[in-house]
Amino acid sequence: MPHLQFDVNKELQDEQRKVFLQYVKSVFSEIMRTGVNHIAVSLREFPKYSLTLGRAQIGDFVCFMNLDIRDGRTIKQKRELVKKYMEGVEEILGIKLNNQYVTYTGHRGNDFNLYEKSLDEWTDSDNPLG
Questions:
Q1: Which residues of the chain have pLDDT under 70?
Q2: Which of 3, 13, 92, 100 has the fewest CB atoms within 10 Å around its CB?
Q3: Which domains does the chain have, with CATH numbers?
């Protein structure tokens, strides 16, 4: 059950939020070859001067992504996901590519839990909830 977290220092419109959340789930499912029913997404909005990135100017809009995923994904999959997410953040949320930063954290499958069960280790084309 990936937990895909996006922190922005920008107030978004409801339509942007909806489009972005759908984009995040579908891109993850496609690139990581898994279902969508177990994907958790957090989109957090902070005041403009609450976040900054070293190469951005103070007050620029920025996006920090923390992607908690199950171990087993390839470097190629991770890089493709980074690029797609950064492109989506720019296109949907209006935040420049250079003002984005991504961190991955890998976990064993059983670190992710739903009410029904802990998840298994990732396998290609899995669908943990059927």
A1: 108-109, 112-115, 117-130
A2: 13
A3: 3-111 (3.30.429.10)
